[in-house]
Amino acid sequence: MGSSSYAHLLPTPSTPAGRDGLAALLARPQKAVVGLDFDGTLAEIVPDPEQARAHPGAVPALAALAPRVASVAVVTGRPAAVAVRYGGFAGVSGLDHLVVLGHYGAERWDAVTGTVKTPAPHPGVAAARAELPGVLDKAGSWQGTWIEEKGQAVAVHTRRASDPQAAFEALRNPLAELAARHGLILEPGRMVLELRPPGMDKGVALAEYVREVKAEAVLYAGDDLGDLPAFAAVEKLRSDGVPGLLVCSGSTEVPDLADRADLLLPGPAAVVEFLASLAHHL
Hints:
Layout: H1 16-27, E1 32-36, H2 58-65, E2 71-75, H3 80-87, E3 98-102, E4 107-110, E5 115-117, H4 123-139, E6 146-149, E7 154-157, H5 164-181, E8 185-188, E9 192-196, H6 202-213, E10 217-222, H7 228-239, E11 244-249, H8 255-260, E12 263-265, H9 268-281
Helix pairs in contact: 2-9, 4-5, 6-7
């Protein structure tokens, strides 16, 4: 991992709960789950989501870490198969303990089988998708606004618009109304508004998976508003006696997440270095 300060030295969490979480993970790694967001945490945020790829050091770091813990779970709003492809996770030696919980846990890819389990699509997604062009036209012409097809969800990105924040704010209410008409929820993120089925979020996905593997410690790293439910799930687990560490892949765009984190890292490169260092200490 080069000469980074994270290569052999673990940073100290800023909170007592975070320090307890890291200590529990180090003491009982075989009973720990490491949960990780994808975009903004393992992969840099890019203007075109289809061009996102995991940091070059991510797979080697995860391959070193995964055999030492109960499981590594990548928890993402992307379709599981897309996250696997963009992450380069398939067919990698050492990743047998890795799963991808896609579409906020609605889908699951397991490295051992290489297969994706997926539910039937929510009918409201197709209906909302059909109406989206008209809603965007009515809200105003925002050059560069882009619709991302996600199978179990659909998203509108404003990062490439001439005024990304203005486009985001102008579309928020119309898209919330569109989502409500079709039994969906609106999930805002970093210059993206996603319409998806209710009932699943990263917190539900993470908590269910932690219970499934009977984990006794948990780490979760994320960067965006969609990661707040996962942070809340870890906080709930801590109140129930399961130590946890909350890591924010630093972003000035999401101060709410940074304020609740035990450990701030300045982006995916630093997250990858931290994961490699963690593997070195286990």
